[in-house]
Amino acid sequence: MTPISLEAMAASIPDGASLALPPDNSLPPVALAKALIRRGARGLRLIGVPISGFATDILIGAGCVAEVETSAVTLGEAGFAPRFTAALREGRITIRDATCPAMHTMLQAAEKGVPFMPLRGLIGSDLLAHRPDWKVIESPFAEPALPGGEKIVLLPALHPDVAAFHAVMADSHGNVWVGRRRECATIAHASRRVLVTVERVVEGNFLEDERLCPGAISAAYIEAVAVAERGAQPAALLDEYGFDSAAVMEYARAAKTEGGFAEWCAAHVFAGRAAAAA
Amino acid sequence: MSVPFRPEELLATAIARLIRAVPTRHIAVGAASPIPAAACWLCVKQGDPIRLSLLHKRSGNPFTEGSRELFDLTGQGRVDLFFLGGGEIDGQANLNLIGTGAWPGMTVRFPGSFGSAFMYYMAGRTVLFREEHSPRVLVERVAHISAPGVSAPGVFRRGHAQALVTGRCVFRFHPERARFSLASVHPGESVESVRAMTGFAFDVEGEVPETPAPTQAELALLRGPVCDEMRETYPEFCARVFGRKVAA
After folding, report:
1. Interface residue of B33, B53, B71 to substitute, partner A, most A CBs within 10 Å
2. Interface touch B67/A152, C-beta < 8 Å
3. With an 8 Å Cβ cutoff, are B154 and A148 in contact?
4. How many angstroms separate the CA atoms of B158 and A239, rounded?
């Protein structure tokens, strides 16, 4: 397995693609998001699995995003996601609101290759009223607690064009290791293409190691790997490094205004490339 | 003799009493405020045999199949208690985490519904928590329903709100009549002051007691072992409330 460059990986994601991303507590590909900003991506349709955070907010701020399908967009303790909020108010993006288990369930249907899966809850929520693609049926199976019959929601399978996340490591065969963050495996199984950034590439084969293989995703699903050290920062990466709450607070303050966001981008997204080119 | 305490500490002990009021084996804590997490840890540190699953815990995260395991567990009825909040909460315990104005929150947009549109139905019970207690949060009718307080016949629903804890009082919820009643008022508040700051009508049954102050033992646990457990996940909260900085 030969890794590609981060910039080549970003270039391979076409404008308009649907791109599934994990949230800030589950291996977000922040370095790749910055590379997408540098390449000037446009019209991306982001899918938050099951919610969206820092990477989504910077992509929206840089004008890369047309639509977000997610259960929430948040910077956690640093508060509301400022560029998401501004773009929504100004009508520059649309949002398809969901609830966390609905995002997982739609991907699990895709993972199984079935057209839909049922999910309880949802009925009586305005989320359902705004999702014409979610259908309510009379359950064909008896539920003892509801002798009069049960209404239940069917959710369509969701097949993202691209899934991207930041794993700890890849091996010589292109398998990647995500530890217990198995939602990344669900995204990988459900998506047409899977792009993974890693801290490092190591010799060997995770699938032959009984202790590593439960946290591994087979190379069968993975199109390309790129090395991006500290590629999840300011989010945490398992036990490798912690959440940089000061950096996210600084971002949340700067990104309150469009000008502040542009300055933040100049310092944190474009500065590295200028230095590399010099 | 009473020890000075912070409002967050009063709220955590009030929530801890709601946890203990009902047999509870397993509590899950999602993206909620750190105060409910502190209440859960307080019960654990007091020796209650409760399993605590924190979705946002980094080291030792209990979900080995990823975060979807939380919803799978809850769907099966293995989660006795969950916590939810809302940008708006109304008198029927409907939650709005979407926003105000036209859909999808064109006046004020909140982050989004998270797992509420599933967890509120499927957890054994839910404690609602919102520190801000004002007519803009506690409204007669929410602008949009992320998750409804009660469900129609024919919809599978395992649990409802047990209570709503705010910065001013504790309300109990009665799903059979889809209304709140005032259970206790925090020090400095009264039935009248709560009514003046609440946008929905609620019931008052007899004399309403004051929410008990945290005991010295509870405060010692909160500021010591509870804070130790919470610092990794909620560093800002621990620094602000307990005055404990996270080591770099």
Report:
1. B71
2. no
3. yes
4. 36
Cβ <8 Å between A72 and B31: yes
Q: pTM here? A: 0.95
B118:A99 CB<8 A: yes
The verdict on whether omega for the bond into residue A234 sits within 30 degrees of 0, i.e. cis, is yes
Which residues of chain B carry a pLDDT beneath 70? 1-2, 32, 245-248
- Identify the pLDDT of residue B122: 98
Interface test with A, best of B69, B113, B122 (most A CBs within 10 A): B113
Interchain CB contact of B33 with A (< 8 Å) = no
Q: What does the block give as tokens for B137? A: 């949060």
Which of chain B's residues have a Cβ under 8 Å away from the Cβ of A165?
Answer: none
pLDDT digit string (tens) for B179-210? 999 999 999 999 999 999 999 999 999 999 99
Residues of B in contact with A127 (CB under 8 A): 98, 113, 117, 146
The shortest CB-CB distance from B145 to any of A124, A186, A249 is to: A124
Instruction: Catalogue all structural domains in chain A, each as residue range(s) with its CATH number.
Output: 6-99+159-277 (3.40.1080.10), 116-156 (no CATH)
Question: Contacts of residue A98 in chain B, CB cutoff 8 Å?
Answer: 113
ipTM: 0.95
User: Do residues B135 and B90 make contact, with C-beta atoms less than 8 angstroms apart?
Assistant: no
Distances (CA, A) of A92 to A37, A46, A82, A84: 16, 14, 14, 10
Cβ of A152 and B66 within 8 Å? no
Q: Do A89 and B67 touch (CB under 8 A)?
A: no
Phi/psi of residue A45, each to 5°? -110, 100
Return the HEC string of chain A.
Answer: CCCECHHHHHHCCCCCCEEEECCCCCCCCHHHHHHHHHHCCCCEEEEECCCECHHHHHHHHCCCEEEEEECCEECHHHCECHHHHHHHHCCCCEEEECCHHHHHHHHHHHHHCCCEEEECCCCCCHHHHCCCCCEEEECCCCCCCCCCCCEEEEEECCCCCEEEEEEEEEECCCCEECCCCCHHHHHHHHCCEEEEEEEEEECCCHHHCCCCHHHEECHHHCCEEEECCCCCCCCCECCCECCCHHHHHHHHHHCCCHHHHHHHHHHHHHHHHHHHHC
Q: Which residues between 89 and 108 in chain B have a beta carbon less than 8 angstroms from any beta carbon of chain A?
A: 97-98, 103-106
Angle ∠(B157,B163,B168) on CA atoms, nearest 5:
150
For residue range A19-28, what is the model confidence (pLDDT) as tens digits? 999 999 899 9
Interface of B with A in 141-180 (CB under 8 A): 144-148, 151-156
pLDDT at residue B206, as a whole number: 94
- The pLDDT tens digits of the residues spanning A60-110 come to 999 999 999 999 999 988 899 999 999 999 999 999 999 999 999 999 999
Count of helices and strands (H, E) across chain B:
8, 12
